[in-house]
Amino acid sequence: MRTESVQIQNFIDGQFVQPIGGKYLDNIEPATGKPYSQVPDSDDRDVDLAVAAAERAFADWSKKPAAERSTILLRIADLIERDLEKFARAESIDTGKPLSLARFLDIPRAASNFRFFATAILHTESEAHITDGVAFNYTLRQPRGIAGLISPWNLPLYLLSWKIAPAIAVGNTAIAKPSELTPMTAFMLCEIAHEAGLPNGVLNVVHGTGPNVGAAITAHPKINTISFTGGTVTGRKVAEACAPFFKKVSLELGGKNPNIIFADADLDAAIAGSVRSSFANQGQICLCGSRVFVERSAYKDFVERFIDKASQLKLGDPLDEKTEQGAIVNKAQLEKIKFYVDLGQKEGGKIALGGSAPEPPNERCREGYFFQPTVITGLPVSCRTNRDEIFGPVVTITPFDNEDEVINCANDVEYGLSSSVWTQNLNRAHRVAEKINTGTVWVNCWLVRDLRVPFGGMKASGLGREGGEEALRFFTEPKNICIAK
Ligand code: NAP
What we know:
- By secondary structure, the protein is of the alpha/beta class.
- It is 39% helix and 22% strand.
- Helix 2 (66-82) crosses helix 6 (184-195), helix 3 (84-95) crosses helix 4 and helix 9 (267-279) crosses helix 10 (296-311).
- The longest helix is centred in the first third of the chain and has 22 residues, at 99-120.
- NADP nicotinamide-adenine-dinucleotide phosphate (NAP) binds next to helix 7 and helix 8.
- Residues 150-154, 159, 177, 179-181, 209-211, 214-215, 218, 229-231, 234, 237-238, 252-255, 286, 389, 391, 417, 457, 462 line the site of NADP nicotinamide-adenine-dinucleotide phosphate.
């Protein structure tokens, strides 16, 4: 499929269709700042159509043997891998991320998501409980119906497939809404789903804005399950919209993740891991470590070597094979980053690296949205720059004196998504990991993902868990059947 200049369509009931209102939005390429395709500006009428299709498809799909559903999902995974280069290029153009990152991370992981849930449904177990001499109970887990799946722009195919795969694997039908900023790979996925033999109406994709399409999905009475990934402010709106209907909701929200480096850490590994966790995807991964805390005795050495390594990251045209830092997703996000870098200085911080937009990497990218990897030091822990989610290539580095102090600092934000702890002291690693209030704690690593583990955030970082067994449970309804003896 050509992606440049293409007019993206909704995918409803197995067909590519125009939005009922006939309206489209420009899809801007972040690296150039120019439109390169168009995306439907759909509304509640398109969501209604998708719901009707999903409702019709549910009757057959939910009754298909797991093995048949599994075969189709495995085919989807194979086809994503067949078209890996096309997907990676589309994702790079759509998001501004380096082509190499899309090729090695996002797209292979999207294929893994389908493969993982395709095989997981072949190995599920169900509980039985014997109530003394009185009764025998067993739990029947049934698909819930129509799932609404809403995802953000930072890892578009990866995060959408992380929802679509478990939702349809267990027998639901789905209505997915990718971010209007990054719709291309979801569009391509529909073509692949069709080719893989996914029955019409099982997966429907309605493109458009959050207020029009996202809100119509969360408010639709026939969509009883909502899996949402995005910002905390939007997550709150989603929760409010779902509450009157008692919808089952999963919310994967923002983060302000701490990296904690003790003086006894393997500093080479901690620096390499922290540079990666600060600047991967231009810092636009919910799991990025944006607050680095370093034990005072190692602080000076760490900062110098961190800056040296970060300054070597090659910023460039995302389509250039050598690029390690691509573009920021849009102008609004770029402005937000600039705002926080200014604020950081007003709050007393010193720009130790970066701090501004670079020269455009080439003529093609003259109007693109770029920002240098930026390090701010000398900030108080409690300032806004250290508390608000910036979601860009901006990291603060702060010294600490002892374990209790750094645990307090790490926990003293509204978020609780992930953290990383760097130490060679095994007891300390366990002790600190237990006390940090985040859904994931990485010790001496970052972004190591096992699809079987529960994934999600604490506090304002979310509600519920995705991943493995948790996702299979989320998308099914447990029914207890109690048989008297
Ligand atoms: P966002 O603005 O909250 O948008 C997320 C999705 O929600 C988009 O598809 C958006 O549509 C849609 N939306 C907006 N308003 C809505 C409404 N009223 N009802 C229903 N849907 C609505 O987030 P973003 O800026 O795309 O993504 C960045 C955020 O996602 C960051 O905070 C990041 O930490 C978080 N994130 C979290 C995780 C995690 O696993 N915890 C993973 C990745 C990202 P449009 O954008 O098309 O308008």
